[in-house]
Amino acid sequence: MSEVLQQMRRGGGVLGGFALLSVALVAATYFGTRGRIAASEQAALEAQLNALVPAARYDNHPTEDTIRLSDAAGFGSGEAVTVYRARRAGEPVAALATVIAPDGYAGPIRLLVGVWADGRIAGVRVLAHKETPGLGDRIEIQRSDWIRSFDERSLTDPDAAGWKVRKDGGRFDQFTGATITPRAIVKAVHGFLEYAQAHRAELYAPASGDRAP
Fold it and tell me: What is the pTM of this model?
């Protein structure tokens, strides 16, 4: 019996050793790659921001000049949202934020919206959606130029009545067989423009290091 116990103990020791080795390898892989993963994620974020606000337009680091805001009416959800702020020589250039269009045809549509400091739209891009392929997915920049119809628009161009799809009497095109999707995006972008105007002081406030003592 003692020999059996000894064999079991030896086997358990071997298994334990393999388990410890596996944990050590996983830990080493994690710590060895997390820096590269973080750098890759940072580069992807900067590319998304620069698609709306070219890097030549600002001289700060928008991914470091941020504020956290939460407002269901302005962002489409009650979740906290990071706002990235672009500046040049300390002066505000644009604010960019993730906005949710909650009433898409197949669910929420996640957008990146940039607004120039003068209230015009720098651009809009779709970050994630589940809209119908071949219909609602024309909101993607790779599928059509429809999303560019927001460029340089503002609360006065068009007026409030124009911030709807044409089917509803507005100025923005809808898609044949897919009106709900563009309607949801127009509503969300307009809502964020109104939010940006009402909270301009907060969105474009000086960075913490630029505030006077």
Answer: 0.78
